[in-house]
Specification:
Elements: E1 6-7, H1 12-25, E2 65-67, E3 78-80, E4 90-91, E5 102-108, E6 120-129, E7 135-138, E8 147-150, H2 156-162, E9 170-175, E10 195-204
Length: about 200
């Protein structure tokens, strides 16, 4: 999820991820790939969408994170392939008021190296709207090949949600607007959207 995230479509996927980085930081740059970047504008393709966000700044400190389980307050259910890291998971619509803080739920605990904010990660992911579960971005649209991006170049919520994951793990991440695109509408994403991602951490470099 660089600042340029490619969304569910080739253009929307990367654009969304990158936008996430830029929106979460406020005014900063983002690059595209499959995630979002922080200070500079970049284009990357993962699912086929350009997700570069050039208005967001890199996060200076980690946002508070609350852990839970799918179906608990503020964390949508995963209705298919929750623990099968070889298949794209399906994210249900959220229920109740979207959370104002970052939420995570580990679906599969990894057993490899732990991701830090300074790492470049290799991930597979799908992103959906909390409001209705509609997918706006997914690396899976291009197959199961993971995409690489530096966590320093994605929106704060995406980066902070991956920090602490272990390689081999799958995690659900719920990103409030303040740590995503904020009030900036993106292709397929209304302004002030709460975003839900399920991320597989394949590797770290």
């Amino acid at each position: 999820m660089r600042r340029d995230l490619k969304s569910a479509t080739a253009a929307v996927s990367l654009a969304v991820a990158v936008a996430i980085v830029g929106a979460g930081c406020g005014d900063s740059d983002s690059s595209s790939s499959s995630a979002s970047s922080t200070t500079t504008t970049t284009d990357t393709a993962s699912a086929g969408t350009d997700t570069t966000d050039t208005t967001a700044a890199a996060p200076t400190s980690a946002a508070p994170v609350q852990s839970g389980t799918p179906g608990s307050q503020g964390i949508p259910q995963i209705t298919a392939n929750a623990t099968d890291t070889g298949k794209e998971p399906t994210i249900a619509a959220g229920t109740g008021t979207p959370p104002s803080d970052l939420r995570i739920a580990d679906l599969v605990p990894g057993n490899g190296r732990t991701a830090t904010a300074a790492d470049t990660v290799s991930v597979r992911y799908v992103g959906a709207l909390y409001s209705d579960g509609s997918v706006f971005d997914a690396s899976w649209k291009a197959g199961d090949t993971p995409v690489d991006f530096p966590l320093s170049g994605v929106v704060p919520g995406f980066a902070d949600g991956i920090v602490g994951m272990k390689v081999g793990g799958r995690r659900e991440i719920v990103i409030p607007p303040a740590l995503g695109y904020r009030d900036q509408a993106q292709p397929g994403l209304p302004a002030n959207s709460t975003l839900v991602f399920v991320v597989d951490l394949v590797g770290i470099s």
